[in-house]
Write a structure and sequence with these properties.
This protein has 208 residues and is α+β, with helices and mostly antiparallel strands. Helices cover 23% and strands 48% of the residues. A hairpin with a 2-residue loop joins strand 3 and strand 4. It is elongated. 21% of the residues are buried. The model has no long low-confidence stretch (mean pLDDT 87).
């Protein structure tokens, strides 16, 4: 449905997404709610698709998310204040990385410690130079020319790197936001897809 209140809510969510993403090239937002529900501060759910996203220092090619019902404060929204959520809610969906996205993330200082750690443990090198996606595997390349292939596995909601044909049999966990729980991982062609869910906390979720 459309209408002034729905437009305000959509604008508030777009502003919130823009504020939490350091890059956002394209965004499509589809909100589902009735007039009476919106007046009571209730949204039945929403769907989001985005491209060219950088969120929490991770570069993402594509994002597809769907939310559970959302409850929000109507008064602040009408005054074009920060969008206030009454309760936390869950989102489910999929994010997609290309090799270029992974290497852009690798170059971020936030991931330097993790990259150096896996370079040391899996390759006996000081630095990780690049990632590549091929043959349904993730390849890691060090600064001194060494490389190794890894499988990616989801265990207990977390993502793990499992080296292939290596003396090291220890899987390495990939650091994640604790609010995110992964359900599956796929490598298709030149893309890595992660599927799972996350909890969005109550409180401020956007600003004018």
């Amino acid at each position: 449905m459309s209408g002034p209140l729905m437009q305000l809510l959509s604008q508030g969510m777009r502003l919130w997404l823009t504020s939490v993403c350091s890059e956002l090239e394209q965004l499509d937002l589809d909100l589902d709610g009735s007039a009476l529900g919106l007046l009571a501060g209730h949204l039945q759910g929403g769907k989001l698709t985005a491209k060219g996203v950088v969120f929490q220092n991770l570069a993402l090619a594509n994002v597809e998310l769907q939310s559970d019902p959302i409850d929000f404060e109507v008064g602040g929204l009408i005054k074009k204040q920060k969008l206030q959520l009454k309760h936390k809610f869950q989102i489910q969906g999929c994010v997609t990385f290309s090799a270029a996205n992974l290497n852009k993330s690798l170059a971020n200082p936030h991931w330097l410690s993790f990259s150096n750690n896996i370079a040391s443990q899996l390759l006996g090198a000081n630095y990780l130079a690049s990632y590549a996606i091929a043959e349904n595997k993730l390849s890691l390349h060090s600064d001194d020319g060494r490389s190794i292939q890894c499988n990616l596995e989801v265990l207990d909601g977390m993502l793990w790197l499992q080296p292939i044909d290596s003396k090291s049999t220890v899987a390495i966990p990939v650091p994640m936001d604790p609010a995110i729980r992964l359900e599956n991982v796929l490598i298709e062609g030149q893309q890595l897809k992660l599927m799972g869910s996350s909890i969005v906390s109550a409180g401020a979720a956007g600003s004018k």
